[in-house]
Structures are given as structure tokens and as C-alpha cells.
Amino acid sequence: MDRDSEYVEYVTARLPALHRAAYLLCGDPYRADDIVSATTTSLYRHWNRVRAAENIDAYVHRVLVRKYADERRMRWARVLLTNRVPEQAHTTDDHVEERDSLRAALAELTSAQRTVLVLRFFCDLPVAEVARILGCSEGNVKSHTNRGLIMLRRVLGVGETPQVRELRSST
């Protein structure tokens, strides 16, 4: 299989998951499209290095998170070309309320907590892999995971745990 075919096959198979991960990180479908586009462009440019990686999926997740971080840093440079906000696309999804509640809850988290939770539970990566992708310690990943889950439970009003009660009493 040639280089381009291999790249197309890989990206085609993972594109929906990449888009969902980007969406969960940023909370905006249009920004998620931009992040995925930047990620796939970078992957294509460096495909020889990517396909030589020990774990291609982990490499791709690392690129996705970095593109998300780059996009956040460059947010000040965005330009609004119209004086009207475009209408949001309507979906026929039966779980819209649940999705919106989760998206709103994720938006309440810090960027680090949201990134760790998306990589851990949506992308189903182990703690060690998330630590390697983010360039931090496993303890840091565990801490962000714990605090993020506590905050999600608090925001969603589920799972009244001792930690949630402690957070409520301290606020």
C-alpha cells in the first residue's frame, strides 16, 4: 500500500472519533472542524514519521490536543466577518438534552480537566498514555481526573459523593 492510500485509510477510519474528541475539548462544532483539519493536515505532512510511531493513535491524540491548545492560544486572532451570528444546525438526535447538559458541564471544567477527561474516558486512553501525550506526570493526570469527575458530578447533580458534599460546603 502506498503512503497516500495508507494515510487516507487511517484518517477515514478515525475521522468521526477525532471530530467527537475535538468537539468535547472545545465545545463548538466549527472549532472542532478546524482542529481536526489542522490535525489531519499535520498528519499528512508528517505521515512517514506518524506511521513509524509505536502507537499511531496515541501520536494522533497528542497532535489533536496540541492543535486544540494552539487554537486556544490564537483565539484572539479570529475575525468575525459578518455582523450576524450564523444559525446553528439542527439535529434529529433523540439525546440532545443529555448531550447539551454534558457539553455545558464540560465547559465548567478547567481546560486541563476537560482535556484529561476526554482523553481518558472518550478516547479510552490509560493514565500513562494521557500523561505522555500531555507531557505531565501520571499523578497530575489522576488529580485532574478526580477533580474533573467531582466537578462534573456537581454540575450535573448526580452521584452525591463525600467529595461533592465537601466541594459544596466549601463554596
Automatic annotation (TrEMBL):
Gene that specifies this protein: rpoE_18
Q: Which CDD domains match?
A: Sigma70_r4
PANTHER family given in the database record:
ECF RNA POLYMERASE SIGMA FACTOR SIGM, RNA POLYMERASE ECF-TYPE SIGMA FACTO
Family as reported in the entry's similarity comment: Belongs to the sigma-70 factor family. ECF subfamily.
Q: What positions does the domain RNA polymerase sigma-70 region occupy?
A: 11-76
Sorted UniProt keywords: DNA-binding, Sigma factor, Transcription, Transcription regulation
Q: In the record, what terms sit under GO molecular function?
A: DNA binding; sigma factor activity
Name assigned to this protein:
RNA polymerase sigma24 factor
Q: One of this protein's GO BP terms?
A: DNA-templated transcription initiation
Top-rank taxon, per record = Bacteria
Looking at the record, the residues that make up the RNA polymerase sigma factor 70 region 4 type domain are: 100-149
Return the InterPro entries for the record: RNA_pol_sigma-70-like, RNA_pol_sigma-70_dom, RNA_pol_sigma-E_actinobac, RNA_pol_sigma70_r2, RNA_pol_sigma70_r4_t2, RNA_pol_sigma_r2, RNA_pol_sigma_r3/r4-like, WH-like_DNA-bd_sf
SUPFAM superfamilies found in the cross-reference section: Sigma2 domain of RNA polymerase sigma factors (SSF88946), Sigma3 and sigma4 domains of RNA polymerase sigma factors (SSF88659)
